[in-house]
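hey m, so remember when u said the tokens were messed up on ur end? i reran from scratch. heres the input so u can diff it against urs
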Amino acid sequence: MHDFLLKYHAMALKLYLCTGMARLQDLKKRLQPGKIYRRNDLTHWSKSVDRHLDQLVDEGTLQKVSQGLYYYPKKTAFGVVPPDESVLVEGFLRDNRSLVTSPNAYNSLGVGTTQLYNKRTVYNHKRHGEFKLGNRTFEFRRRPHFPRTSTPEFLLVDLVNNLDSLAEDRDEVLKNVAKKVHSMDMRKVKAYANRYGSVRTKKLFSQFLTQTLQHAH
């Protein structure tokens, strides 16, 4: 009787392990390399989602990038490809309406900014604060309005919005911004300043545009 019980328990354990492995393999088949998954996304395919997630992270199939957020890495001959920035942010927000930018982008405007910053800003409708996703840190700023893509006009307005947080000489940069307005589409600059500028930024651009029109006459 004792031997029978031992064999029975051994068979039951083997069946349990085989069933568990089969369910884990079934879950893995549903995952796509390069995609971000939330814990809740996987509950559709697993009744033991926390155990399966622990197993998938331990074996390297998934990488945990934030609380409840996982990345299925895409692998190439050169190694593991880190998650695409837009995919990472969209997965975190559960929203594709965002704009990722950086103060480094201001350097392309030619208005005297040259510093390099290890900082990424995410304009969005949901989250506010600094969050670490994987090995990257993002500053999420909740805003009612922001463009879908970054343009020179938006960057110019955004630069003035954030000028006090930059290391450059504020007065010198503003002089260069006033000159830069001359060479840009003034209707676009005015529209972007009115839609995305702070109260102070709107006033400054109103002055810049007035000066530009006076010089034109």
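this time it looks ok to me. The mean pLDDT is 87. if urs says something different then somethings off w ur setup not the seq
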